């Protein structure tokens, strides 16, 4: 729930604002000084961060941008109300966000700000359920591949019974489920709902926590054409691993698109935008603003002419504003990198990581299909290349190697950000982050999870600026994998954990 980030004598500090105006997930642990995602609201340049599928530490450039905006706000609120200043600044960010996404020329496109991707899903769900004559059906992929809070957000509609159907996109052993099977299951669910004249919200994830797209864009496009009066499509692109041409193509299909600034863009957790194409915006505005949205938003988070938004509180969420500013700063830097340089580096990085994961006995890459969005778009953009690399952990033994279970993988993950007192001082002292473990089935009776090594816009920007064509970034990724292997090896040798 948003809160007005005000202090009697001005504003809280920049680091305090960066964790304000969200929910309990932003709260800092009193011992570690980190939030639920393992991040603190200050730069940490010594930390090797490859965790952008979850969240990342704010960059020095991002923090400086937030600090400059706070100083601007202090001057502005001396002569204007907090609400007026907030409205003006959010309008500025809205304009540049659309410009950097190459969408300024799309007439009728609307943009809604939310505190989190979870809230974006709630907005779409509540509008789908609003004034529906029959309880709607919400179709999504399994929650562990999108976010644990998403399913709860979808069912949190007011005065409507909402049914949520979750579709598996990986098999029981963690291998990718054939895309045709996923599409067929979703088509069957949609056909049954349409036969009962139910309203539907279909959520297409691009990309999931482990880098999958599901259902296929072809499936979503066909269903949208087949049931135009029943179905809305929301593209969950909250990872923001998406090129401007792909984003535009989704919107031109009439699909809503959810984005966040805290994953690929490396902004602080809890900044999100919902893009509404003209036809979808027009349909939604014909329905009353759902009452459940009133505590989730302030007036300036919504477009000026949005019907029903006058019911929202005129106040300021300066925490959200600063987080959006940081995300905008990172997006601006990424957009300045030529696409050929982006493609070249991702190719080189992916090849190096894949070779390491395949050859090292401590790891096994978790397979993911190619990122195929045809017939939505066939252009050879950078977003057709993988930037999330999920992998399983193993403890090598004399008779082979043993797969680590979920609890053991979590233990390794939790030790990564801290220097440890091991004999191999150089590797043990490395502090790093990977994407949180994702549950991905059962093998040989063992419940398993995958860690994720991720490229972010910041890492790509740094690689493009280096004279070594990104070799330094690749070396840092190898150091992170060295640290993972050392943690497993040490625990296995000393039997200090349940890794054996």
Automatic annotation (TrEMBL):
InterPro entries (UniProt xref): PyrdxlP-dep_Trfase, PyrdxlP-dep_Trfase_major
Domain of life of the organism encoding this protein: Bacteria
Protein's name in the database: Aminotransferase class V-fold PLP-dependent enzyme
UniProt source species: Candidatus Methylobacter oryzae
Taxon lineage: Bacteria, Pseudomonadati, Pseudomonadota, Gammaproteobacteria, Methylococcales
